[in-house]
Design a protein that fits this description.
It is a single chain. This protein is an alpha+beta fold and 338 residues long. Helices cover 40% and strands 13% of the residues. It has eleven helices and six strands. Strands 4-5-3-2-1-6 form a six-stranded antiparallel β-sheet, with no helix packed on it. It starts with 7 loop residues before the first helix and ends with a helix. The relative contact order is 0.11.
Length: 338
C-alpha cells in the first residue's frame, strides 16, 4: 500500500493513475473538444493532447490542475449522484461510518472501485464537507489507496529552431528587396489628388457613397462557464460576481512548520456565488504554472504585482456582504480573464 498524496490537488492527480487507464481514455474520448466548443484553452488543449497521445500518466502528473479536475468531475458525475441517493438525509455532511457504508452499498449494487475513487477524490479536490472522511477512506482501504505521482517533465510548447540554409536566406532577402521596389514604383505612379474649388458643390450622389456610421455597441461582460455541479450550486449572475474580495482561502497542503495554520486571508475574484458560499479564483503574489498575471492589481489596491489562479475554489460565506471588498472589475478587465 503506497502513501496517499497529501495535498488536495495531488489527490486529484493521483486518482487518475489509480482509475483504469481504459476508463480514463474512454471518458476523454467522449468529450467534445472541437475549436467551437465552449472549453477554455487551459482545459481543452491538455485534454486534446490526451486524446491524441494516450499518455494518462503524463496528463495526470503535469497537465494544468483545471484540466485534470475537469476530467475527474466528468468521471465522478454518475457515481456521485448514486452515492448521494444512498446517503439520503446525510448527503450534505456524512460522517465516516455513513460514507463508508454508502460506499459498500455502491459496490454491492454494481459500482466499480473506479467509480468510488472518482467520487472520493473529486470530493477531496473540491473541498466537500465530507472531504476528510473521503481522504480517510482513500488512505485506509487498500483497494482505494492512491499511488505516488511520478516525476514527469511538462512537455515544452516551444518548437526547436529550424535550420535555414544560406541559399534560402538569400532567396528571402531578394524577395524582400523586390517587394520594396514594387511598392516604391507603385507609389510614384499614383496620381496626385486634386482639390475641389470651394465654391463648387459635390455631385449629388457623392454624399451617399460615404460609409454609414455604426452605432456604439455596449460592452458585454462574458458569463463565466460553470461545470454542471458548479451550476447546480452557484449563480453566475449573482450580485457579487466580478468583485475582488478578501476571503479565507484554504491551503492545498499542510505547512510542516505551522501545522495548525490551514488557511490564509487573500484577495480573490468572485466567479459565481450563492447565499452560503462563493466560487472564487484566488490571487497570489507569486506566479505558478496555473496562475497568470492579474492585470488590474494596481487599480484594485494591491501593493505588488499579483497573479490570479486558474483553479476555482469554494469559500464558505453565509454573509458575503460583510467581507472586505477591494473593487469590482470593469467589463474589459473581466473579459480579459475569461
Amino acid at each position: 500500500m503506497t502513501d496517499a498524496p497529501s495535498s488536495a490537488n495531488n489527490v486529484v492527480r493521483a486518482s487518475l493513475l489509480k482509475i483504469s487507464e481504459d476508463t480514463v481514455l474512454a471518458m476523454a474520448d467522449s468529450l467534445d473538444l472541437r475549436a467551437h466548443s465552449k472549453v477554455s484553452a487551459v482545459v481543452g488543449v491538455p485534454l486534446r493532447q490526451l486524446q491524441q497521445r494516450r499518455d494518462v500518466q503524463a496528463f495526470a502528473a503535469s497537465a494544468p490542475i483545471a484540466a485534470v479536475k475537469g476530467l475527474l468531475e466528468v468521471l465522478a458525475l454518475a457515481p456521485l449522484e448514486k452515492i448521494i441517493g444512498l446517503l439520503g438525509d446525510h448527503a450534505d455532511s456524512p460522517n465516516f461510518e455513513q460514507l463508508s457504508g454508502a460506499v459498500d452499498e455502491m459496490i454491492a449494487s454494481g459500482s466499480t472501485n473506479d467509480d468510488v475513487i472518482a467520487v472520493l477524490a473529486f470530493a477531496v479536490g473540491d473541498a466537500f464537507p465530507a472531504a476528510p472522511s473521503c481522504r480517510r477512506l482513500l488512505e485506509e482501504r487498500e483497494e482505494f489507496a492512491l499511488p505516488k505521482l511520478p516525476d514527469v517533465a511538462a512537455p515544452s510548447v516551444l518548437a526547436a529552431p529550424r535550420e535555414v540554409s544560406a541559399e534560402i536566406r538569400e532567396q528571402r532577402k531578394n524577395r524582400r528587396e523586390e517587394e520594396k521596389r514594387r511598392k516604391k514604383s507603385a507609389s510614384t505612379a499614383r496620381p496626385l489628388r486634386t482639390s475641389r474649388p470651394k465654391n463648387v458643390a459635390p455631385p449629388r450622389n457623392e454624399a451617399s457613397t460615404s460609409p454609414p456610421a455604426f452605432p456604439d455597441v455596449p460592452d458585454v461582460r462574458r458569463r463565466a462557464l460553470l461545470t454542471p455541479l458548479e451550476g447546480a450550486r452557484f449563480d453566475a449572475d449573482h450580485a457579487f460576481v466580478g468583485s475582488v474580495l478578501v476571503v479565507d482561502v484554504a491551503f492545498d497542503a499542510q505547512d510542516p512548520d505551522q501545522p495548525e495554520v490551514t488557511s490564509k486571508e487573500r484577495p480573490a475574484l468572485v466567479v459565481a456565488a450563492s447565499n452560503e458560499a462563493l466560487l472564487v479564483r484566488a490571487i497570489y503574489s507569486n506566479p505558478s504554472p496555473t496562475r497568470s498575471l492579474f492585470g488590474p492589481w494596481r487599480r484594485v489596491g494591491l501593493d505588488h504585482v499579483s497573479y490570479i489562479d486558474d483553479v476555482r475554489v469554494i469559500v464558505a460565506s453565509e454573509q458575503p456582504e460583510t467581507l472586505h471588498r477591494l473593487a469590482v472589475l470593469t467589463t474589459a478587465e473581466w473579459n480579459a480573464l475569461f
